[in-house]
Amino acid sequence: MPAADAPLELAVQALMLREGVQGLALAVIRDGAVDQVLSLGSRDVGAALPLTDGTIVYGASFTKTAVAYLALQLVDENQLDLDAGLPQLLPKPLPHYTAPGRNYSDLLGDERWRRLSPRVLLSHGSGFANFRWLEPDGRLRFHFEPGVHYAYSGEGYRVLQLALESVLGIGLDEAMDERVFAPLGMADTAMVWRPDFADRAALGYDIDGEAIPHDRRAVPAAAGSMDTTIRDQARFWAALVRGDGLSEHARREMFRAQRPITSAPQFPTLPETRDAPYRDIGLAAGLGLLRFDGPQGLVWFKGGHDAGTANMAICVQARRDCLVLMSNDVRAERIFPAVSRRVLGATGLPWSWEYGGLSDTVN
Fold this sequence. Notes:
Distance between the termini: 18 Å
Low-confidence stretches: none
Number of domains: 1
CATH class: Alpha Beta
Number of helices: 10
CATH topology: Beta-lactamase
Strand content: 15-25%
CATH architecture: 3-Layer(aba) Sandwich
């Protein structure tokens, strides 16, 4: 391992070598400005193709934060009420939506869908499992009363997408292009696959180092369909920590503790625990992200994960400093705490909650 004062690039490369991480891109934001962007390793090991600042990588659940940003723009424009129930936002009852990929007929006879609101959905209080296909019978159901407690749910964001598209009258992909990606200069980001991404998209690498083809998503999904680059994500998180595009009221709502988190790990998502190991730091869901009170004050963060993707963005609000990490290798999550400490110092981020198997001793 290089000395503590070694350049960041050498330090990160040494960590990647230690854990066998194939590719990793990162951006350092200082006082709201992009200070450094690094792209290291490979986007395709077999073809000996490097991962670069322009490599198309999967945004995974970073998508949720970008969608929350869109929703809060609508709040600022008085087009969306965070506490409006779905009957106020949809032209027909939720269980009457039966299109493939948007079938909510499982909820017929359960009126709890009426209590779902943008605030509940954005802060993971829907009561749904993360995804319906994780249920033993593959059917959507409520596991608790909406708004009672936190349980991470991509299904909740799918319902939110219905509401946003109803309010806007256009698809989520078009809305995100017009209202988020284009204004922030994110020219290489989209909610669905674009043909011009084909010659620079990264493969993913799973926990065993096996390659996974890049998923070319044809349908936008608020829970996580965004393709992007580290350059574009640096622009997005820098804009967010500066406060661009949102009123001060909307930003306070985004970073406020909307829903306390009482579980020891993030997953499995549904069980509620009462000992609340992170009560002292105020770990809670904001809107589209998570927040806690660390030794440097308010910190907010968002991860993104699938079998071949590891993403994490961490921002220290008082200093307007952020670290954005994006890897096409899920094993990169093992080195995120050390990289974070190197760039941001001790933030107090509860890594053991985020990933389940990591220690909080280096945070």
